[in-house]
Amino acid sequence: MTIDLNSRYGLNPAHSEVVEACKVIEPCDTLDMGCSNGRNALYLGQLGFNVNAIDINAGAIDTLQSIIDQEKITNIKTQVLDINSANLGAGNVNHYGFISCTVTLMFINPANVDAIIADMHKRTLPGGYNLIVCAMSTEQNPCPVPFPFTLQTEQLREAYAGWKLIKYNEDVGTMHNGAKLQFATMLARKPS
């Protein structure tokens, strides 16, 4: 039986879209972009994924590294990295079967979004997957949170033209604080 490390260390559960993606994706070399304190990385690691967990926040990376050290986890590597650099190749693994980017893009510099997505494409192995969950701001549903970046209608779908969309929606949901927020959610597979 797998121990729930997220509960043990007081972390939120893995993002529901990461959990769903793992029903489709076999364990592989994985990049967790904007991993924060590691809720998704720990979940993926326990399922047998080899995870490179990156975040700009050194304190969050230190927290995750502490858990890795205490639990003697060998399949999760951490790195402090600014995703704005649009260079996800740093670290031991340069090409991934799965890149997870949940609620991360909205915190980056809007001028870098296209380059970051292009780098995600480049770093994904043929037949590999990208998962993106990002806030939107549309005329019908303006974003009530002042994120540096939000997606427009169909922007994410267009950025993944030519990929097989396993899941794609632009649904409005309710945040834990009651705010209504529209998110683009996409799981896409790169052509083999």
Task: Sum up the structure in keywords.
Rossmann fold, 192 residues, 7 strands, single chain, globular, seven-stranded mixed beta sheet, alpha/beta
Description:
The protein has 192 residues and is an alpha/beta fold. The chain has a single domain (5-189), classed as Rossmann fold (3-Layer(aba) Sandwich), CATH 3.40.50.150. 25% of the residues lie in helices and 29% in strands. It has 6 helices and 7 strands; from the N terminus they run ααβαβαββαβαββ. A 7-stranded mixed sheet has the order 3-2-1-4-5-7-6. Strand 4, helix 5 and strand 5 (124-135) form a beta-alpha-beta unit.
Task: Give the gist of this structure.
The protein has one domain (5-189): Rossmann fold (3-Layer(aba) Sandwich), CATH 3.40.50.150.
